[in-house]
Amino acid sequence: LRKASKRLSCHKRYKIQKKIREHHRKVRREAKKRGRKKPKKDPSVPGAAPFKEALLREAEQRRQRLEELQQKQKLDRQKELEKRRKLDAKKNAAKIEDQTEGTEPSKSEANTKEVLHKKSKKSLHSELEKVIEASDVILEVLDARDPMGCRCPQLEQAITCSRGDKKLVLVLNKIDLVPKENLEKWLNCLKKEFPTVAFKSSTLMTDRTMREHFSRKRARIDLSRNTECFGSDCLLKLLQEHCRTQDKAIQVGLVGFPNVGKSSIINSIKKNRVCNAGLGRGLTKCMQVVRIDKKMKMLDSPSIVADRANSTLTLALRSIIDGGGSGSIDVVEAVDAVLNHCSKQQVMMSYSIPDFRNTEEFLTLLAQKRGMLKKGGVPDIENIAKLLLCDWTGAKISYHSQPPGSQMLPPYLTEDKIAEMQKGFNLKKLEEENNATVQALKYPSPASSIVFQSAGMTNGKIEENKVVGEASQWESLETSEEEEEDDFMETDDQDSMEEEEEEEEKDVKEVNQVLYHLHFSSLTNHFLFSESGCDSSLSLSLDKSADEDDAYDFNTDYV
C-alpha cells in the first residue's frame, strides 16, 4: 500500500497557522501578567566581614564534598545496573538452556572445545619439533626487556644434549625498549653461555601490494624509527661464516615464546613481509620455510607452549591467551601479577593515571581514560586488561629487568658444552658488530623505563620432541641398538643352519630313491640272465650298492 500524502489544502494550512499565532499571543500575554523572574545572585561574603577567607575555604570544601558524594552515588548506580544486567543475562541463558535440550549439550560442547584445544597444542608441538629436527642452527629469540623470562630450559637442554652438530644462538630482540646500560649488562651476561646477537626488527613492514598505497597516505610521516632494522647484517654475517666453515647449505630455525619477534626478524632480514606478524599471540600455526640465499634457509616456527605449572606472571606474559576454555587464564589476575612486580609510581607516570588502591580501580581509571566503556558507561575491565597485556608483550611499554648478580650456569650447561656451542663462530667479530649496533640506536632514559622484577626462566612443554633428548637416553639407545644387532646376527646364523640341514635331508632322500631303483633293476637282471654266467658281476654290483648305501659319497653326482 502507498503511504498517505502529507499535502494539505491551503484553507486547512492557513487555519493551523492562525491557531498557532493565537496560542503564541496568549502565552506572551500571560507571561507579561506574571512578570519575568530574574535569577538570584549568589550573595557573596562582604569584603568587610571578619574571617572572610575561612568562610570562603569552608564553602569550597562543602562544594567539593558534594561533588564527591554525587560522583560516588553515580558509580554505585552504575555498579547496580551492571549487576542487574548480569543477573538478567544469566536468567535469559538459563531459560534458553531449559527450552533447548538442557545441560547435556553444554557439557558436550565444553568437552569438544577441550579436545580441540588439546589438538591445537599437539599440532604446535609437532610443528616446533619439525623445525628443531630440520635446523642446523637454532636461534632462540629473547625479549630484551625480560631475557631470562623468555628462555626455556627444556629447549636449551634438549638442543645441547642432542646428537648431531646443532648450534644454539641467542637473539636479543627489541633492544630499543630498554636503557643502554641495561642492554650492555645483559649482553655481557648472556655471551658467557651462548653466542648472543643484539637485534632491533622493523615493526612497520609492508608487503609488495601495500607499498604504493602506504606511501601515498603516509608520505609526510617519518617512519624511519619503525621501519629501520638494526643487527640484521651482524646476524647474517655470523650465519654465513658458519655456513662457510661447515661447507654445506644450512637451515636456521627460529624458536621462542609468543610475541618475542620471530616472524619480524625474518621479515627484517628479507626486507619484505614474507611472514605473518602482529600484536596477537600465536599467529604462526605451522612451519614456514623462507629462502635467504643459495646456501641458507630460515624456518619460522610456532611459539613454545608454556607449562601450566609456571607462575601467574609468567603465564600472563608468555602463554597464548585464547578465549574461554580451561586453558585460558584470568586476564585480571594476570594484570594484577604484572603490577605487583613493578613500581607503582612508575606505572602511574607511564599511563598518566592518579593514585589507585587495587588492580580493579587501576583498570577502571584506564578504561575511563581510553573510552573503553560498556552500555550505561560501565568500564570494560576485561577488554582493557587484554589491551594492557598486549602493551606489555608488544612494543609499546618500555620496561627492563636486571641481570642476576651472581651468574650460575644451568645444570645442563658445562664448559665443554659451552665451548662446543661457540665453536665455528667468530666471537670477537660478533662482539664488535654488537657494539656498533648498540651505539647506532636511541634508547629510553632509565627514569622513563619501568623497573620490572623477572620471574626467572619459563618452563615449556618440549617432552614430546623425538629429535632431541638427554645424554642418558642416547646411551641407552646405543646399547639397545648393539643388543638388537647381536640378536639379529644370531637369528641369521640359526636360520642359515636350518636351511642347510633341510637341503641335506632333501639330497639324502633323492639319493635313497636312486639307489632303490638301481637295486630293483639288479634283481631283475639276476633272474633274467642267471644262465649266462653273470652271477659274479651281479654279486659285485650288489655288494657295491650295499657299501654305497652304508657310506654315501656327497662329492659324486648321481642324477
UniProtKB/TrEMBL annotation:
Keywords: Coiled coil, GTP-binding, Nucleotide-binding, Nucleus
Basic and acidic residues: compositionally biased ranges: 54-117
InterPro entries referenced in this protein's UniProt entry, alphabetically: G_CP_dom (IPR030378), Gnl3_N_dom (IPR014813), GTP-bd (IPR006073), GTP-bd_ortho_bundle_sf (IPR023179), P-loop_NTPase (IPR027417), TRAFAC_YlqF/YawG_RiboMat (IPR050755)
Region (Disordered): 1-122, 463-509
Occurrences of domain CP-type G (ranges): 125-307
Compartment(s): Nucleus, Nucleolus
GO cellular component, one term: nucleolus
SUPFAM superfamilies: P-loop containing nucleoside triphosphate hydrolases
PROSITE patterns: G_CP
Positions with biased composition (Basic residues): 1-40
Amino acid composition bias (Acidic residues), ranges on this chain: 478-505
GO molecular function: GTP binding
Protein name: Guanine nucleotide-binding protein-like 3
Gene name in the database record: Gnl3
